[in-house]
Amino acid sequence: MPTPSAIKLHKASRTLELRYGEQSYSLSAEFLRVHSPSAEVQGHGRPILQYGKLNVALERIEPAGNYALKLCFDDGHDSGLYTWDYLYQLATRQDELWADYLAQLAAAGKSRDPDESVVRLML
């Protein structure tokens, strides 16, 4: 299980930087939020599509033992524990996972923008 050698929260750019040796990955708060390992997002075997999270930010990160991070988002979500293995998978498969997410949004007629989501619900 790869463990990051460095972890840095960049609040201004709303990203979490993970370093593994010489390799560095930058994960957006939106990406981390929509891929939360929590039951709220993952469902119980049936993932629940997250939308309208374009502007979400990470407020803080907290260690969870020696095996994970608890990420606390400004939309109140803080129930997912991101294990070292899960974070590594998110980092190394980011492009593929993001493309899949965007395709799911399009298929569902949803938007990353919370304002567009509200307008669509009102129509």
Mean pLDDT: 93
Shape: globular
Number of helices: 5
The largest sheet has its strands arranged as 1-2-3
Q: In the residues, how many domains can be counted? A: 1
Order of helices and strands: EEEHHEEEHHH
CATH class: Alpha Beta
- C-alpha termini separation: 47 Å
What is the share of helical residues? 25-40%
Fraction in beta strands = 25-35%
Number of strands: 6
- CA-based gyration radius: 15 Å
Based on secondary structure, the structural category is alpha+beta
| CATH architecture assignment | 2-Layer Sandwich
Q: What is CATH's topology name? A: NE0471 N-terminal domain-like
Low-confidence regions: none
Q: What does the largest sheet look like?
A: 3 strands, antiparallel
Chart the SSEs and their pairings.
Layout: E1 6-10, E2 15-20, E3 23-28, H1 29-34, H2 39-42, E4 58-64, E5 68-73, E6 81-83, H3 84-92, H4 94-108, H5 114-122
Report on this model:
This protein has 123 residues and is an alpha+beta fold. It has one domain (6-108): NE0471 N-terminal domain-like, CATH 3.30.2020.30. Helices cover 35% and strands 27% of the residues. The chain is built from five helices and six strands; from the N terminus they run βββααβββααα. β4 (58-64) and β5 form a beta hairpin. The chain is globular. The protein starts with 5 loop residues before the first strand and ends with a helix. The mean pLDDT is 93.
Keywords:
123 residues, alpha+beta, NE0471 N-terminal domain-like, three-stranded antiparallel beta sheet, globular
